Give the backbone structure.
Amino acid sequence: MRTKVIDILRSTNYGAEVTVKGWVRTKRGSKSVNFIALNDGSTIHNVQIVADVDKFDEELLKKVTTGACLAVTGTLVESQGAGQAAEIQATDIVVYGTCDAEYPMQKKGQTFEFMRQHAHMRLRTNTFGAVFRIRHNMAMAIHQYFHERGFFYFHTPIITTSDCEGAGQMFQVTTKNLYDLKKDADGKIDYSDDFFGKTTSLTVSGQLEGELAATALGAIYTFGPTFRAENSNTPRHLAEFWMIEPEVAFNDINDNMDLAEDFIKYCVRWALDNCKDDLEFLNKMVDKTLLERLNFVVNNDFVRLSYTEGVEILEAAAKAGKKAFEFPVYWGVDLASEHERYLVEEHFQKPVILTDYPKEIKAFYMKQNEDGKTVRAMDVLFPQIGEIIGGSEREESYEKLTARINELGIPMKDMWWYLDTRRFGTCPHSGFGLGFERLILFVTGMQNIRDVIPFPRTPKSAEF
Ligand code: 4AD
Ligand code: MG
């Protein structure tokens, strides 16, 4: 029977016969003995295999190279070397798969750029093993958090007809023959004979359907893939990313902020409690301030202030020559990442929640404030990341919402079902969206969002 490396390393059952299976990380040795570091993905740590050269066929040991896949049977012994508890004195080695010198992950210290080009093999490295074990843990933390608090996991459609964020960044879905498009008299494409009989796209957010559920089940969350055809080639944008969107009936913007802060702290604490080995590795190899930053976020209150106050701080910093921003900052501007990071990293040195943004730079569904200029939006801004969460209290008034929809020229016929929530028993409610990969960026200390999703989709790139 096979034992996982993680269990071998915890075991003190010395003298027992065990079998491990995995991939060779390194082999070193002398004329008389080979030391093989074997990893099976269950932990960042390798188990050391000790193979006496005179007990094995020379040809077999030659096949044991970096990247090769083995099954090893032997005796569990207390390790002589420092650091590890147990190692295996091999009695039998089976080579499942040899691995030649062209194995792209053979050399240590490859750049992340190189590894991205070999994303199918990078999973076998220490760094990506750690990142994806943490990614799994964060997904578990999220479900646990909401489940414990009585939220229902609600599945929203991937294929939709509505542009939730109204930003026109949707990927169209069609089965039409693009070489032979039927057009009407005005030259417009006729979608009545398309698969769904109308234009459809991949969703940018599950929020609108999430609101339907929250105003029935009380508190729900979505957790699924979302798609944005925004041509932003940055270390923080993907064309396909995962989003978590809680939506809660009767929550106002303050409840929403409390939920966001508590939720994100829970996830970070989960990582600190459950991903110790992987975080220690990343802290050593990728980002020396990672653990410090994670502990800091868990132990400090987030700063809350309005967009207007935030802009005042930024304007003052620019005016005093404290900071030279690439993009100008003024009331009404959609803050750039450099602005957000100045507030978080330099001014407050804490995570920040900005509220009450100008309505022009926010989506149609946000609750309008009395001032007629701002909406009850909230963005959570994080060190290194910038915006990690975006959310709001929702406009519950049918009249105000339809007025805003008309103002923006959003086709009403597509929104009838959404508006019905406001017609039939409307209620105050709030929610937000957490970008899953932005959370993983923060928790792992990785610098590029392409390195925290297994197979990234970005402009001009959809390999694997
Ligand atoms: O701020 P956004 O666009 O908000 C919404 O989609 C709302 N419907 C959420 C809600 O209220 N239910 O996106 C939410 C979060 C952002 O804060 C960011 O973390 C992430 O999603 N995000 C992206 N992550 C990776 N790549 C992109 N292109 C992203 N766009 C947004
Ligand atoms: Mg946003």
User: Anything to note?
Assistant: DSSP finds 14 helices and 16 strands in the chain. The longest helix spans residues 126-148.
